[in-house]
Amino acid sequence: MIAPARPADLRDSGLGEETVASLVLKWLHRGERTGMDLADAVGLSYAILEPLIEQLRFEQLVEVKRASGAGTAGYRYALTGEGRVRAVRAMARCGYVGVAPVPLEQYAAYMAALSDAHAPVDRTTVAQAFSHLVVQPAMLDQLGPAIAARRAVFLYGPPGNGKSAMGEGIGRALGGDIYIPGAIDVEGQVIALFDPAVHQSRDTVGNGSLIRADDEVDGRWVRIRRPVITVGGELSAEMLELRFDALSAFYEAPVQLKANGGLLLVDDFGRQKVSPRDLLNRWVVPLESRVDYLTLQTGRKFGLPFDAMVVFATNLQPGDLADEAFLRRIPYKVLAKDPTVEQFSRIFEQTCQRHGLAFDPAQVAHLREHCYLGRGIPMRACHPRDLIGQIVSFCRYHQRPVEVTPELLDVVCATYFIDDTPGDGVRAG
Asked: Are the beta carbons of 310 and 264 closer than 8 angstroms?
């Protein structure tokens, strides 16, 4: 795993004195802090902050409230009246308060190094990553090269066959931890990148304080589990661009930037708020060039890495969603087929085990004879989970022991599957 090295001095951080000094004032606007507290909050060593704090003291913006310990790192600092005025002005220009941002150039260099250092992915790696799922070996052999190349995939097929769950397996195959900056600086504009809603930090413990195992790592970066981000029907065109909050006066990163270095799963592709054509047109160049272009409020457009593996999961035909030019840029199209009887039985057995229920192959045989063959219903990978879940609910409602019997299977099938019209077959609800 590549870790960004702690900057030796302010120039090495890529930031100007005014940027860091303003961030110190904004942190102190929240309350008194020691020198070391400020260093931890800003993510830069105290050796870098000390001369800046001394300059703020000289300008009578910051004062020492109490001294303790050896050296100024233990001093407890607070804003003066003029310092509070200056901090409010700084907040009006940019309300971001967090670790110091990382310049775009440094972020791009890290992502390039990370891309070059990807661990090799082979059949053993993929098999281990998908060991929690029942997947046809032929399908893994189709997915494997796409994961190894980290190229976009159209994962299509009938609903209910685990296309969404495949994302977790792909994420495991990509494997490992990476670092991302808390925020990125683009010509003085701040883009918040780390998002605890989608990023699983390896540094955050207990009350949320950051404990870093290596003091040589740049404190502006957060170690996270390689991101696996899923977006579904809520995906809109606005989520693909920088979002500027006029009240806080800084930007939130778009979803594809948050997924950089990992996986972005577009679930139920074709049912998003943004039309398939608009989404594909937005990403047609980035998927091929691996560079995305975003625009600031000022109109300034800039490029940055597009290093997320994108998986489009859909139960629609790819040809109905995209034209030939776009499909050419997604070289891997993988069909998630209905499970075989053997695979269905294994899924059913695993589901019983998760609920602590006894499994008998006769249960699957009963379903196959009376439901699937008898009523013309195709087997789906999701059916064991759904049917057994309904059995558990039914038994608890009737205050009876939870068990899987032919009679209970018939009861839940009657509510799970829908008869369309006589002669038209049956479908899942």
From this structure: yes
Rounded Cα gap, residues 147 and 371, in angstroms: 37
Which positions ≥6 away from 410 have C-beta within 8 Å? 370
For the chain, which domains are there?
10-99 (1.10.10.10), 104-335 (3.40.50.300), 341-428 (1.10.8)
User: Residues 169, 129: contact at Cβ < 8 Å?
Assistant: yes
And the tokens for 297? 């409020």
> From CA 373, how far away is CA 163, in angstroms rounded?
24
Spell out the residues 6+ positions from residue 298 whose beta carbon is closer than 8 angstroms to its own.
Answer: 189
Q: Are strands 309-314 and 153-156 parallel, antiparallel or unpaired?
A: parallel
Distance from C-alpha of 331 to C-alpha of 295, rounded to nearest angstrom: 29
Residue where the block lists tokens 């009350």: 207
CA atoms within 13 A on the CB side of 214: 15
Sort strands 250-252 and 189-192 into parallel, antiparallel or unpaired.
parallel
Contact 376/164 with Cβ under 8 angstroms? no
- Give residue-wise pLDDT tens across range 355-386: 999 999 999 999 999 999 988 899 999 999 99
The letter for the amino acid at 38 is L
pTM: 0.86
